[in-house]
Amino acid sequence: MTTEFLLLFAVGFVAQLVDGALGMAYGVLANAAMLALGLPPAQASALVHTAEVFTTGASAASHIYHRNVDWRLMLRIGFTGVLGAILGAWILSNVDVSAARRFVYIYLLLMGLYILYKSTRIAAAREQPAGWTSPLGFVAGFLDASGGGGWGPMITSTLIGSGHAPRQVVGSVNTTEFFVTVAAATTFFVELGTSPIEHLLPLVLGGVLAAPFGGWMVKHVPARALMIAVGTLIVTLSIWQLLRAFGVT
Prior knowledge:
249 residues, mainly alpha, single chain
């Protein structure tokens, strides 16, 4: 095994472990690694979404097994999320939208800070999904495909910040992500062709091996600790991405 293979395997494993436990970050972490290897944004996003077809499938099975899924919430965000992913993948394949990422990172930074604030005063969990979850699914799916990652940070942060139960949010978002990812990967395949197998294989292997642990972790981590972890992760990633976007790092 080459050093690059082992590095990408580790990236896939760690990214999926974090994503399965917190409902976010696989796309952001893996996409950053692909860009660091010199892949263009469209090809990097296509590669990550192709790998996610396998990792999100395994993660979804884990969350379903541990009963972390709110099926009503999943249906609300799933249909529109798929539509947004198709549109975002098509646009990224044909138009340069990299400038819009800065606004996304600023939004995520604010949401991360808001979640950290909410973790100090957790409200009663909603019994019904909020009415705006369907439009949120569309926006999150679009940003995920066009920005190379963002489904989890965008939708998980917003849902938890609005009072939805963290465990059901993480499980539902991870399960829905499988369908959103399939839609994005299929669109990228039609527009750009296949992804390089030497990059795809280690990402898939690492992610699939880590996926079963996510469902177990989110089932046993307390809600307050989960919210603090989610908020801290979003703030850290957002600041790092903003620094990169403005050429500071």
